[in-house]
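Q: what sequence does this backbone want?
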């Protein structure tokens, strides 16, 4: 299900997404989907997540839109689909190419660092069976995002967990997945606190 990656692969994905805006003013969800092609599930999780973690995530409505995209991919991942489908009303949504480039460049140092330290380990955390567990968790995390938009940048917590899951799957580094599980617990605590506070 998941292909191994070579050093620099994560940053290369960022560069490919940024390059989509070289000849246009906006980048649509469908453009990103075409760019990612039929890679492993990982990029389809971590790309929306890192976009939300970047400054773009501070734009009202963007976290919920990205959460919907993640949930859609995670559900298809849960049922073992290899070719992802995105409905038209989502695929045509677009963001400013300049804002996308600026936002992704802000987090480039983190991606570059993860590229360097990632290696294959904790294989159980990226096994076929466990990927379905991660898919369920991603749906739950995505569902928690809309109410968290009421709290400034609170939605970064669930998206951080989703990003770690996606990065772990992409690089076949189960340690990142385990870290994502820890962040997931923290995100659910934040959701509970935010909704009852």
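A:
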């Amino acid at each position: 299900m998941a292909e191994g990656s070579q050093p620099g692969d994560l940053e290369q994905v960022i560069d490919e997404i940024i390059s989509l805006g070289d000849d246009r003013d906006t980048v649509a969800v469908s453009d990103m989907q075409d760019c990612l092609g039929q890679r492993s599930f990982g990029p389809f999780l971590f790309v929306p997540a890192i976009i939300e973690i970047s400054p773009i995530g501070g734009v009202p409505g963007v976290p919920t839109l990205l959460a919907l995209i993640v949930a859609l991919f995670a559900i298809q991942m849960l049922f073992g689909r290899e070719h992802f489908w995105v409905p038209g009303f989502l695929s045509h949504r677009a963001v400013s190419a300049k804002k996308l480039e600026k936002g992704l460049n802000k987090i480039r140092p983190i991606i570059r660092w993860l590229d360097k330290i990632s290696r294959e380990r904790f294989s159980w955390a990226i096994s076929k069976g466990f990927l379905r567990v991660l898919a369920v968790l991603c749906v739950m995390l995505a569902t928690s995002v809309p109410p968290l938009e009421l709290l400034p940048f609170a939605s970064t917590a669930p998206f951080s967990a989703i990003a770690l899951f996606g990065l772990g799957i992409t690089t076949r580094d189960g340690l990142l997945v385990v870290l994502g599980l820890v962040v997931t617990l923290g995100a659910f605590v934040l959701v509970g606190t935010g909704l009852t506070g």
